[in-house]
Amino acid sequence: MSDTAETNRALLSEAFAKLEHGDPSAFLPLFGEDITWRVMGTSNWSKEVSGLPRVEAELMGPLFARFAGPYRNIPELVLADGDHVVVLARGHADTVDGKVYANDYCFVFRLADGRIVEVREYLDTKLADAVLG
Question: What residue ranges define each of the domains in the chain, with the CATH number in brackets?
């Protein structure tokens, strides 16, 4: 594995290790100003958003507004190749409506200079719509 791949894998592994316990403090600072986040599929949540302010306002803000408490994302596998890191993970949160949101994810991250510049997020979009609206 290249030094870049190992460095990127370590950054995302550390971020998800904290996110596993509901702590996003190591994850959010990794976002690059020019980040593009694509939620794949055809759900209400599926979209492509570019630029950190828009990602925060159009994806993160509405998503976290649906949660009653911390959001946990438990990594199962972290693979890296060059500037790409793939994370298989299981998310869990209680919603403000009293529902449990537990989804499976495959995230494909692309990093540049230690910052996430692109995300492709694969998930059960039908579940996201049913639980999150």
Answer: 3-132 (3.10.450.50)
